[in-house]
Amino acid sequence: MPVIPFRSPRTPQHPFTVQPPPAPSRRAVAVKWLRKMHGWIGLWGAVLGLLFGSTGILLNHRAILKIPAVQARESTVQVPLPDPAPADPQALAAWLKSSLKLEPDPTRVKLEPARPVAWGDRDLVQPARWTASFTSPSGGVVAEYWVGNSYVTLKRNENNVFATLTNLHKGVGMSVGWILLVDTLAGSIILLSLSGVVLWTLTNRRRTVGIAIAAVSLLLAGGVALASI
């Protein structure tokens, strides 16, 4: 049986070494950072965007091509005043809130002073008129009182689901917290638009086309806004 002599392995003249990956360019870092920011901002505004998108369609069709989804049930009642009657509109609003358990706090409390009016060939004096509104997204109550009457007239609106969502869109009867929350959504839409344009220009060779499309969009939006003023 032949014997194979043992030979030690030769040491290669050029040993194999693993080269470190090249450092990413500034452009690649910017694209990666913009994509992450774009995704997180989009996730933040997803739920509110669905709400405001659907209610925005209803608001856009409120005058022309109406969508009969927003409905409100109206009712009117007359409530006797206590004895003694409230001394001013603020006292009237406070009494209505406590006695009828109205929510939220009264807004737009007004006093229209008495004034002369023409009635045929006679000059009469119209008594002072007090009004107070209790507004919420689900409905509202408007109180009207003519000084001298023994009662106050209440006009109540009860909104359906679509009307309630539309009022949320408009911020009717909402607090400062809700308004600031909606501001974050508006700001996120602006950031999404800007980051989307920047991403397109960084990842697409046809930058001139993207810039032209963005400029035309801004001009059209500005023209529509100016035409509506």
Describe it:
- This protein is an alpha+beta fold.
- The protein is built from six helices and seven strands, in the order ααβαββββββααα.
- The chain has helices at residues 26-44, 46-60, 89-100, 161-170, 176-203, 207-228, and strands at residues 72-80, 107-112, 115-119, 122-126, 129-136, 139-146, 151-159.
- Helix 1 (26-44) packs antiparallel against helix 5.
- The radius of gyration is 34 Å and the shape is elongated.
- 10% of the residues are buried.
- The model has no long low-confidence stretch (mean pLDDT 82).
Overall average pLDDT? 82
Note the run of SSEs as H and E: HHEHEEEEEEHHH
β-strand amount: 15-25%
Taking the alpha carbons of the first and last residues, their distance comes to 105 Å
**Count of DSSP H/I helices:** 6
Poorly predicted sequence stretches spanning 5 or more consecutive residues: none
What is the count of β-strands? 7
Q: Tell me the strand order in the biggest sheet.
A: 1-7-6-5-2
Main β-sheet: number of strands, strand sense, barrel status? Answer: 5 strands, antiparallel
Rg: 34 Å
The proportion of residues forming helix, as a percent range, comes to 40-55%
3D shape: elongated
Structural category: alpha+beta
